[in-house]
Specification:
Layout: E1 3-6, H1 11-23, E2 29-33, H2 40-44, E3 48-51, H3 57-64, E4 69-72, H4 79-96, E5 100-106, H5 117-130, E6 134-139, E7 141-142, H6 147-154, E8 159-161, E9 167-168, E10 170-171, H7 173-185, E11 192-196, E12 201-202, H8 203-214, E13 220-222, H9 225-234, H10 242-253, H11 263-268, H12 275-284
Parallel strand pairs: 1-2, 1-4, 2-3, 4-5, 5-6, 6-11, 7-10, 8-13
Antiparallel strand pairs: 9-12
The structure holds NADP nicotinamide-adenine-dinucleotide phosphate.
Length: 285
Amino acid sequence: MKIAFTGATGHFGSIVAEALLKSVPADSLVASVRNPEKAENLRARGVDVRQGDFDKPETLDAAFAGVDRLLIVSADGDNDTRIRQHKAAVDAAVRAGVGFIAYTSVGRADSSSLFLAPVHKETEQFIRESGIPYSFLRNNWYLENEAGSIQAVQAGAPWLTSAGEGKVGWATRRDYAEAAAAVLTSEGHNNTVYELSGTPVTQAELAAIVGEVLGKEVQVQQVDDAAYSSIMAGAGVPEAALPIVVGIQRAIREGALDITSGDFAKLLQRPLTPLSEGVRELLKA
Ligand SMILES: NC(=O)c1ccc[n+]([C@@H]2O[C@H](COP(=O)([O-])OP(=O)(O)OC[C@H]3O[C@@H](n4cnc5c(N)ncnc54)[C@H](OP(=O)(O)O)[C@@H]3O)[C@@H](O)[C@H]2O)c1
């Protein structure tokens, strides 16, 4: 059984690699990466490192050859680029005769108001149309996305948000990656859709957890989207990124990430890492 995973030199994929190496032999693993020289550590541990660049479909044919199960870690560009890249990966998986695709999607990809959702909706559709058995790993929201806010609070700033009482199913990137590894190494996941969400909490609740870890009271500053945008601009967020950060706050306010599901702990076969522990790790980094 050959298990391949893309993005192995990224944050998520490198944790997947570690998790897989703990549960299956290294020689059953294929790391598909766009820059193999960045994956020397995996090669040194016996993983078959192959070049697989979503922008060079011919490389994907070789990268996916002989692979039984494939994890496609979503790429990180703009929406149009990612849709093209993900389509290239799915098409190559079909050509290579891959038997199963797991894909890192986003919460309620088919109906979410989040600006990121269309990429995932389309990719899920490509995979469904491919006829390859699949598992959609609808990752809710990395706690790591809030590293900047957590560090700002540590430095004395209030917790700033325009998301109101909207809740988010935050969990650590490590938990999401370990769930992906579990899907790749166990049975019974054909044609599944997993909503991988921590227990949804509000911004104020997360700020209180950060406060507990830091041992101080954290002020929560609720503002409207316009104020959020101008404060973010003042803090150095590039102009092009402002609609994105504001759009995330708006979507959270509208409930896009307020998803309750038991799928996550079921896949991990353990409780999720508490947010307080995740915050502690982030503060150490
Ligand atoms: N749910 C959430 O909260 C959340 C948050 C952040 C990101 N995400 C999604 O999850 C994905 C993984 O997250 P992450 O933290 O691991 O991000 P990341 O470190 O930026 O990983 C993205 C990976 O995509 C690879 N990639 C980009 N373009 C590629 C191409 N043309 N061909 C092959 N591989 C390509 C990158 O390769 P290199 O290593 O060569 O750069 C990298 O390994 C992100 O890309 C994004 O889609 C979700």
